[in-house]
Write a structure and sequence with these properties.
This protein has 339 residues and is of the alpha/beta class. It folds into two domains: 2-125, NAD(P)-binding Rossmann-like Domain (Rossmann fold), CATH 3.40.50.720; 126-282 and 317-335, Dihydrodipicolinate Reductase, domain 2 (2-Layer Sandwich), CATH 3.30.360.10. 35% of the residues lie in helices and 24% in strands. It is built from twelve helices and 14 strands. The protein is globular. The protein starts with a strand and ends with a helix. GO terms for molecular function: nucleotide binding.
Length: 339
């Protein structure tokens, strides 16, 4: 039995706890949160009060003989807490983003390389049924080579979402806004299909929360993935200033057709087809957001299966390097007015 502790008892910590309660080889033994009452409430809610509650990670690690910790804390805490656990030889499953600066990510690479513990990153949308369907269609080869892609994330986040959190909306603690928080998963999937950009241009704005947040509510980026007059390219747009949380839209234009992912559906059309085929995901999940991201269960289960079998984990730190560094390149370009 693998003994597990969750650090951070907010909404996402609850999602992790629900999944862990369904994994036979995992036992929830402890919760930690700077607000002790929240850790105590989670203990009662998810373990009938059997898990111990702590008001600090340090206290929990000192008193509990854990095998795995889940980092579900604000962005700026991810790397310091993960590094601390890895240095103790614990396995770590960390929420996104993997870091909020290049320096943090480089530190995480060094600590991870030296640790006997394994590190997994929660890029759960790689496990969505729709994502796997797109991967399957591309692998078949009937669409031909990818010529370009586009992604749209149009959601709504109001002032209380930031002001009541104590950390969102601040560059020092969140690391950014609409890109690093809301649309990093869409960027990750786009890059999984297109590869590493050779050039990135971007711009960002704060349209609807001026004077409330210091991060972007809207960001657009243009990326090229090859050289020449007609390069493989991608257009990326993300905003939290829309009136509702719309399903995420991703599309790939290919030599012999196209494939489009939106919500729980995938549209695709190849040469010879008069109309697009519409494929609908069958599995529904109560975890994650209804408009994007139901892969938490599969993502976390896979991590524990890999711990048990010794297999390489799909969402290890190396696998998210391209996404992280591209995200930072986008921010650098946007802060330098597209240069």
């Amino acid at each position: 039995m693998v003994r597990v502790g969750i650090i951070g008892c907010g909404n996402i910590g609850g999602v992790h706890a629900m999944v862990l309660n369904e994994i036979k080889q995992a036992r929830l033994c402890a919760f930690a949160d700077i607000r002790l009452k929240r850790a105590e409430e989670y203990s009662v809610r998810f373990t009938d009060g059997t898990a111990k509650a702590y008001d600090s990670m340090e206290d929990m690690l000192e008193k509990e003989a854990l095998d795995v910790v889940h980092i579900c804390t604000p962005h700026y805490c991810h790397v310091p807490m993960t590094a601390k656990a890895l240095k103790k030889g614990l396995h770590v499953f960390m929420e996104k983003p993997p870091a909020i600066s290049r320096e943090q990510f480089d530190e995480l690479l060094k600590v991870s390389d030296r640790s006997t513990g394994r590190l997994g990153i929660c890029f759960q949308n790689r496990y969505n049924e729709t994502t796997r369907k797109v991967n399957e269609l591309l692998a078949q080869g009937t669409l031909g080579k990818i010529k370009g892609g586009r992604a749209f994330v149009t959601w709504h986040r109001d002032a209380p979402y930031y002001t009541e959190s104590g950390w969102r909306g601040k560059l020092e603690t969140e690391g950014g806004g609409a890109l690093i928080n809301q649309s990093i998963h869409a960027l990750d999937l786009l890059l999984s299909w297109l590869g590493k950009p050779v050039r990135t241009e971007a711009s960002m704005s704060n349209h609807h929360l001026k004077g409330i947040v210091e991060v972007e509510d809207t960001l657009e980026a243009y990326m090229t993935f090859s050289e020449g007059m007609d390069p493989v390219s991608a257009s990326f747009y993300a905003t939290t200033a829309y009136a509702m949380d719309a399903p995420v839209f991703l599309e790939l234009a290919c030599e012999k057709g196209f494939v489009r992912l939106e919500g729980n559906s995938v549209w695709y059309q190849t040469e010879g087809q008069e109309e697009p085929v519409v494929w609908q995901a069958k599995k529904s999940s109560l975890l994650g957001k209804s408009y994007w991201g139901s892969g938490h269960e599969a993502c976390i289960r896979d991590f524990y299966d890999c711990l048990e079998t010794g297999k390489a984990y799909f969402n290890d730190l190396t696998s998210v390097q391209n996404t992280f560094y591209t995200m930072m390149d986008i921010y650098d370009s946007a802060r330098n007015e597209g240069r």
